Input
Amino acid sequence: MSGCSCGVSNPVSKDYIGSTAWELRHRTGYASNGTGVHGGRHTHTFNEGFWNQCDDFAEDYNYYTSTYGSKPVDWFGDIGIVACKANSWHACGRAFDLTAVYFTDGGYVDCNRSWRWGLTHKRRYLGLAAQLRREFGTVLTAWYNTAHKNHIHFDNGSAFTVIRTSYRSDTTLVQASCNYLDSAGLSIDGVWGPRTEAAYQNLLRAFHLQCYDPKTSTWAASVFLEKIVQHCYANKSAGYYVGSCGGPT
Ligand SMILES: [Zn+2]
Output
């Protein structure tokens, strides 16, 4: 575990990320179908550098949901930024607990429900996690542990980096990508064994990215994650959009 002591340096007060129109709304409960119920626009204190990264994430995320899924962002749901607790980047305003994203067409990703539902919702949830992972080193999902079954946690305690096979957070994200974009049938157990490695190589080939190494190159990791995001919001299986390595051999 890691984190910071309590207190926010360079604090900024914000009620949106990305466009000023994309307000932050607090989750106050659940509807009968398990999706979050959220209140109106509200304000949080953030560490300024972290908020700037959230802002970049929101702009980039909206680009992909709009371009590939015709779903511009409407608002973001949360259950908090600053919390004075041990071993947490929430203590200094450098962590975000995300509960939902709603789109202008009324569609949504709900972080308590979408990962449990059918393929379209699973892909939306996966695409959200993958785009977060393009900005932040730590992204904790429902696949990571039971504490994150109703929200996605992300923080900037570690910077964006390569795909780490020894990290449960990265391994579960890749396993979910292999399953929901390439029908790999893996158990999402966080253990990078031979079956996961084979499925990962299959996914790289399907993306025509097999000549790059997302495990050692941050550039390749970003391109790999981008392909995941594109397919998730287009709701397509791997291979609909391809990279520059040529066809699988
Ligand atoms: Zn959190």
Remarks:
- The mean pLDDT is 97.
- Residues 123 and 232 are 5 Å apart (CA to CA).
